[in-house]
Design brief:
By secondary structure, the chain is mainly α. Helices cover about 70% and strands about 0% of the residues. It contains 19 helices and two strands. It has helices spanning about 1-5, 5-15, 20-40, 45, 55-60, 75-90, 95-105, 115-135, 150, 155-175, 180-205, 210-215, 220-230, 230-245, 250-285, 300-310, 315-325, 335-340, 345-365; strands at about 140, 145. A two-stranded antiparallel sheet has the order 1-2. It is globular and about 65 Å long. The chain starts with a helix and ends in an 11-residue tail after the last helix.
Length: about 375
Amino acid sequence: MLLRRYPLLRFWALRRMSSGGEERKEITKMLAHYNQLLVRSGYIEESLPRSFKGIEEFQTYTRSHKFTDENTDLEGLNQVLLKPAWSIIDRGGKRWRPIICVLIAEAFGYSLNAVKEVAALCEIIHNGSLIIDDIEVESLVRREQDSIHRVYGVDWAINAGNFMFFAPMKHILDSKSISDDKKLGLTKIYMEEMMSAHFGQGWELLWKRPDFKKTTVPTEEQYLQMVAMKTGVLTRMAGRMTCSLLDLSPQISTYLTDFTQKLGMAFQIQEDIVSLREAKTLQKQSKDVKTSETSNDWKMSLVVIHCLNHLKSQQREELIQLLCRNPAQPKDLIQAIDLFNSTNSLQYSKNQAIKIIEDAWKSVEHIPVSYTHLT
């Protein structure tokens, strides 16, 4: 079928992730194929080693190694840095951010090998951000296992998560296949987008504080700006860095940057909806809600913001009281979701995510087919 034959159509096919039936099965299979392709390539290991095997390898990461040689405690660094990092990577995940890099490359006649450094960077940074985020929001579970800070301690987790922000960029800067001009451009993109990610995370952390929740409700526009920076920025970075690496035109880069950012935004909105529904299902089955990927308190998701803006004063105060409980009580979950349903906030948020996706596709539909590998 065409979906298999043309790389660009595989790229376009992501549009139909909300579809059902055979289309969805085909796309899920396609994403699983790319996931395995990335894992088998070994490119993630090239950017972040599973262990430091010797002094020479370790010295490629630092110029401050002066006082020890054979007695350098590399095994200690393997335990404190690389073991926690690979613990979360090996748990799997969708890996759709690096897959986006590959699909863009294929659409313009390139392969995974052409964007391997950027694809690996996007996956490693994303996993590092999960380690840090789980600490900040006191999340107990990540990918059906205890969060990394619960396994290795908060101190090791912070150090490992931060190391994952830097190691893959160092690999790019050391690459002999990337020109100095491109390295400078990639570094600029990396710095801009990583700062934006911290701006977005900062807003979300501010809004989750009980004293803020009691006095202020962010507007939907403020929420969209936050999520564009928090979640949309990593997919945006994937798009920008891939376009830069492949020397795509500024116009095409603009289209793809807008497209990838909006994908990330829609993903976050939908992920919040799914998390609520999964937690409610576990609660109804009398299972521990803490086995799902929920934090110990409520965040200001689009669902919550819409609901607060449409409840009557008494119910609004009731929801605010629920939102301010830390840790959140599983028994309160059903009550909160009933309030969300009373204002149709879950469906409203889903519709907004769909609208963002449709807007995203309008961006890339401007790209002429003559620019792609279909010609």
